[in-house]
Design a protein that fits this description.
Elements lengths: L7 E4 L3 E6 L2 E6 L4 E5 L1 H9 L4 E2 H9 L6 H17 L3 E3 L1
Antiparallel strand pairs: 1-5, 1-6, 2-3, 3-4
Helix pairs in contact: 2-3
Amino acid sequence: MLLTKDHKIIRKEEVLASEMDGEIVMMSVTQGKYFSIGQSGVAIWGLIDQERTVTEIVQLLLEQYEVDKETYRKKVTRFVELLVQKELVEVK
């Protein structure tokens, strides 16, 4: 699925997650699978505890980190698309 700037993303309720050693370890109850997110994805995962667009996520991250906006937007979009593919988030 290709995300647009208007799509809202939120974590699926059936995904249990816990931070461990700077990473996020998750279990999808419906899939019966485990996943992990490395340090670079932890901040993004933290921001999708409520509905947000990719644009909103990027804007919030730009307030915390000094990075090129367009490069970061592409990286965030790819990461969120991976979360969608793994069925860990909902897209509205």
